[in-house]
Amino acid sequence: MVKPLTSAVILKDVKKTFDGKDYVLKGIDLSIPKGSLTAIIGFSGTGKSVVLKHMLGLFKPTSGSIEVLGQDLNELNINQLTLFRQKFGVLFQSAALFDDMTVLENVCFPLTEHRRDLTKVRMAEIAEEKLLEVGLEKKHFGKLPSEISGGMQKRTGLARALALDPDILIYDEPTTGLDPILTEMVDDLIVKTHKHRQGITSIMVSHDLYAAFRIADYVAMLDAGRVLLYGTPDDFYNSNIELVKKFVAKGMKH
Ligand SMILES: Nc1ncnc2c1ncn2[C@@H]1O[C@H](COP(=O)(O)OP(=O)(O)O)[C@@H](O)[C@H]1O
Ligand SMILES: [Mg+2]
Questions:
Q1: Is 1-69+167-176+203-254 a CATH 1.20.120.450 domain?
Q2: Measuring from atom 17 of ligand 1, which residue has the nearest CA?
Q3: Total-model pTM
């Protein structure tokens, strides 16, 4: 009998050192439920981005294992990992769009890289579909990133992350540096996209606790390379862990 798959990502005792001396990750155990919107929070430099890069197979753990959608990443070679990475859509802090490509060309890019079986016309159709899904109007599709607003750039970046219909969406500090209005727009976009895409797993690293607790099903707080607390937003409000209480109080001053 096939075991039902309930976790999208499982990290087991993941340790990582870059210099063979100091451990950035000191034994991360984390299981992210399939279909959930999970936030990873914690002070700056605690290893949040490093954890995400392990999930993406961009970093190899010094020890421990990472399983994504039932696949142990340790078993894949570089080429297989590159292919496997198509299961992810990623949106970083800066939308990281190509300046010399139009909005539409930016969203087509992953398709031209990975879906050579498709015609150019079909690729453009898919890109238009994704752009409309994230709420960008057609009149902007032919513009360069420099000709559209910051909010539209975020939408374009998200449309590009959706181009290959990923199983897992990863956001690393998607709202850092944005004004409050744009922050709320991006948060709403994350929730809307998560709800719209049945079964998708969304993993968001955020410095914005208010947003994390408002929109996430589960929250994992990292501290010094370990998971300090993992649970629902309510588990965080009710926690007696001193550092959690401090962090929650600080983050809630909005
Ligand atoms: N490629 C790398 N080589 C060496 N050290 C790294 C590398 N990437 C991250 N680190 C270190 O790992 C620690 C955690 O970084 P990071 O995960 O980026 O923190 P954050 O929680 O702010 O996202 C930091 O001390 C950082 O300097
Ligand atoms: Mg980071």
A1: no
A2: 47
A3: 0.92
